[in-house]
RNA sequence: GGUGGGAUGCCCGAGUGGCUAAAGGGGGCGGACUGUAAAUCCGCUGGCUAUGCCUACGUUGGUUCGAAUCCAACUCCCACCA
């Protein structure tokens, strides 16, 4: 493969987005000739996307910046079936109302990363429920079912894995790849889409769509996959203490989002800067060369750039300021989570355990008790190891705030109403 | 439809009448060490108005002083046979 000439593919290779591509040279040619449309499909299994979906999202953004048209395919129809790829067990089927609700939440995420509209390179969002729900079973089987070889489908990784491990695979799920293949063909017909991208676990599904369209419409389509990311120490991307790293502000405050990137493992910094920021490569090469404690500077840049894309520059600066005050000056910043308490209530004294739980630092009083006993709890940066301790007005600082901490990283503020 | 096997805490998985809030592992969290990193070591890991109480071993009943453990019915899953 010669090195690509189109802006998009050049960047894809350079920044580490490429895992596999069906026909790099031919795709490069088409992209050089003019604007193309490409799509990525997203499940509607939750009401927000999380950091695990960020690579494909960034890929669509890069596509748009390179002068092409991104199509976001919402799996309103296929989510009703459930993708078996990469999963041991069938997924719980979601109700229709829940799926609709999830679609609405996910739409808000994309508006941050892509420009939607009617222009030639404006992004569009489509929902495969629009064409899948109306399919007639017998017609579908006769028109398209005959192009799928079961023999071949059994060889696909997603299916093979289930069969080898003797995990049940229902006929419903077995049909997922057929529906996704049909999606690709449908999008090529409706929107002139010629490229489907996705995670490396989608390779089989993508290739199926290309094959189907070649057989039925005699059209050449392309597929390109991105690597499925794990951190250098093997953990799945996008998981953290409190659960998933959501991209919607209402599910994960921008301060916590910033912290997630700030805590990136050393070995991942360069990779993440390439994938999740839009800094020039030369700048990234400079940053990833930093060693020892200096690499923290690179992590701050990563946190800033990533947060800026998702939540805006202002939120990123706010998070950085709070982090600086909290971690580097031993004070606290206004972006920390906070709870408000009535003065009268505080005068009467509030149990420490109760306060920790109300502030969201602990899930239950029992957990709070354990933390206190493990001397992990601080009030105004003073260690407290008596579970019966009370908060009172004497603890308020000059600004009328009490700072609570659990461990080194979790902090919250108690303010008066 | 028949026969056999299974369902345990976030996950995997021991446990076959009291010593079981349930071994062990994973994951997660806290502490030490550091650089808000990794690795390593130590500890914690059902809830509560807390020397006690409540909830929990698929569901519902039963036997027993006492059940995750025994019995019955039911639900779901798996395997083999038809």
UniProtKB/TrEMBL annotation:
Tyrosine--tRNA ligase SYY-like C-terminal domain sequence ranges: 332-414
Motif 'HIGH' region: positions: 44-53
Keywords tagged on the record: Aminoacyl-tRNA synthetase, ATP-binding, Cytoplasm, Ligase, Nucleotide-binding, Protein biosynthesis, RNA-binding
Amino-acid positions noted as binding ATP in the UniProt annotation, renumbered to this chain: 239
Motif range ('KMSKS' region): 236-240
Protein name: Tyrosine--tRNA ligase
One Pfam family per UniProt: tRNA-synt_1b
EC number: 6.1.1.1
Reactions this protein catalyses: tRNA(Tyr) + L-tyrosine + ATP = L-tyrosyl-tRNA(Tyr) + AMP + diphosphate + H(+)
Quaternary assembly: Homodimer.
Coiled-coil ranges per UniProt: none
Entry GO terms, CC: cytosol
Single GO term (MF): protein homodimerization activity
Binding site for L-tyrosine: 39, 176, 180
NCBIfam families: tyrS
Record-level GO BP terms: tyrosyl-tRNA aminoacylation
Protein family: Belongs to the class-I aminoacyl-tRNA synthetase family. TyrS type 1 subfamily.
